[in-house]
Fold:
Amino acid sequence: MQTAEVSAYIHAPCERVFEVLSDHEGYVAVPEISSARLLRPGLEERNGRGAVRELRSLGLRFVEEVGSFERPRRFEYRIIESTLPVDHQGGCVELTPRGDGCEVLWRSQYTLHLPWIAGLVEQLLRAQIVDAFTRILLVFKERLESEELRAGREGR
Structure:
């Protein structure tokens, strides 16, 4: 099993960061993500627990189901279908208030099923996942911090 983990500090309230990170459709703002759509809405709220979403990126397709959804601190998801031969044990995005902003920790655990070469490919895949999570967080960080800056100038 491999674990990919990234963290970032975003100078914006955790409530707003959670809203942006849990809204799958906003992920198309990341250049590498070609589409993001809701296949099934969540039980209590649209992007919440039970929601099934599809993401397409760089020729790959991922179908994820949202598990735990604890606004504004944490949500979990699991890839239930993918073009990659992967068994996804789960992903988790945790938000912790810090100062005037929010610390984000994004973790995903998975096993790649490729006999004989899985170890090498898993290491390469882990690097790709860390890079993808980092790019996503940087896109949202820039957006959220720009919003915060504008709101501060306008006196909220």
Remarks:
- The chain has a mean pLDDT of 90.
- Residues 118-153 form the longest helix (36 residues).
